[in-house]
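The data are set out underneath:

___
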Amino acid sequence: MSKNRRLASPTVGSVLERIGRRAARRHRSFILGWILLAITVAVIGQAAGGRTTDNFTIPGAESQTALDLLEAKFPAVAGDSASVVFESRAGINAPQVRPAVQASVHNLGKLPKVSQTNGKPAVNFAVSPNHPTIALATVQYRVQAVQLGTDAFTQLRHATAPARAAGVRVEYGGAVVDYADRPPEGSADELGLLVSVFILLFAFGSVVAMGLPIGTALLGLAVGLSAITLVASVTDVGTVAPTLGEMIGLGVGIDYSLFIVTRYRENRARGLDVEAAVTGAVSTAGQAVFFAGLTVVIALCGLALSGIPYVATLGFMAGLVVLVMVAAALTLLPALIALVGDHIDKLNVRLPRRRAAGERDPASTVWVRWAHVVTRHPRPFALGAAALLLTIAIPVLSLRLGESDDGNLPPSTTQRQAFDLIAQGFGPGANGPLVIVVALPTPSDTALMQNLAKAAGPPTRGVADVLPAIFSPDGSTAELAVIPTSSPDAQATNALVDRLRDDILPKAISGTGARAYLGGITAAFIDIAQRMSERLPYLIAAVVVLAFLLLMCVFRSVLIPLTAAVMNLLSVGAAYGVVVAVFQWGWAKSVVGLDSTVPIVPFVPMMMFAILFGLSMDYQVFLLTRMREEFDRTHDGRAAVVTGLASTARVITSAALIMITVFGAFVASSLPTIKMFGLGMAFAVLLDATVVRLVLVPALMELFGSANWWLPRWLDHLLPRVSIE
């Protein structure tokens, strides 16, 4: 009865088999369809005018309440701002300098979309009291930076031409400049792609075979990135999304294609014709691709648990690109293989000798010997590998979340120089003032605001200054700016925010009927960090449970998904440890292009977990699929481990090298956030493909023996039938 029901229900393998056969027979239609899809999505996305933007909202956070109240009651300051810093050795008030600076400030007030307050441009100008050679003009716009576009920076430069003509140094910062003059990202993707070409040439020994994964990944990436642009036309998508999509898409796209091309060549070596070889590759290796990709998507969609719409959208966009890459590997790649047919081994490259069709792979003997060594001594290998991963993960105990600001940019950028000049002239806290927004019980209650300013100002520990209160047009709301003594990313600033919220503000307004909310960009980033810290355990639990259930359905085992989850957690923990050691502790920071240590950007650990946990399943699924095939054939646990490792080690090593190259290339980015992603993921893949897959997995598989494949009969009946064929 159970057997008949299984035969009547199509398995994943049978569905993929039909897809592979159809792609092989109608390969020209499949290829043309993908080309038309890429063109269509790109054209629609561009026509829709989709643009990425960094719109952080933190539902339920105090800083979000403060921002919402500001936007409702102070429409003139609802937009972003730009900081224009002037420096002159002669002094800002020198006769030959002052007129030029004043003319520049006047021009700044005439720029498009600059706010007006009481009929005057909202441009605040101040000369540093301690360093009269430095002055700061803050230009307040009534719209967000994304609405100003990249022309805003050019307009700022034109407006300050009189000062620069007078020999005054002018630097620019703030949200408007950060968006309009983002540092160039360089050519990380091109570098990763170039190295991937050489790795594939070495793996396949053929230009044609190498071109298949590259072509599949590039066309799939074109569709995926265009889809992100299309989505950005209807909802907010972070500016990091395309870079993340490109990073992950290139890695998984090439890897997935590598698995299928390798299985196709093995099938041809066994004597199967082209159509049968393509069909067999898609129905077997395609299953590993399908389930590995599904695990990645599940992990990325788990970012919805972050409670931050910005982060959730980043996860959805990265998941979208992965889905496109899986679809390309299962439909476009088989069509391309069928198109080239027996020409797949043409244009041989004279690298170290490659095996001929049907010849035994010389590398396999090395892996066979290695597998025997590990399986003969499983305990010391398992303990040693686990100890190494735990040691590397130790720095994660010192993890401190915080936002990377302009002070972490390269010294050559105008934003970094403006940041340093503001800190020098007005104190480090001037780069990230805190904003107290007060809903007043009595309109324009100056006495209450004076008492509040006195309570929150010096000599309060950590406060450098408090600016005069500003009342909304209807007098119902007031704004008070607090300048910390420490920089925005300093631990002391976090402590000040906690003191103001938990102690100082509640006492100052007690019994008045007023409501006070502490906000500003610095407080918002602190709230994001706290929200991420609170939600990360939920994300980890949800992703681990879902991945466990998926792998249990795939491999019909309890122990396999359990050990996979533990090993993947060890890999991710080690990656966290490396990121903390380099970026927070400063170990080898110059190697990755950092001038100073930086806190870990709040959403990086959460996104790294989702991405790495999913990607680490790629090799796990591919390796265990072959082990399962061998165990079903021989029912010999050790033979399954040895054969599975020997037959997949070279492919996994090549795939890991590609991933490491693609991710590692992004360490050259000028943005610390992208550096963190690139370094963390590259190092995690390195550990996962070596310590975990080549040592820990075979050692544990040998220790557990046939128990690896045990599944209670009652559970077998409950689980959906998605077994690997």
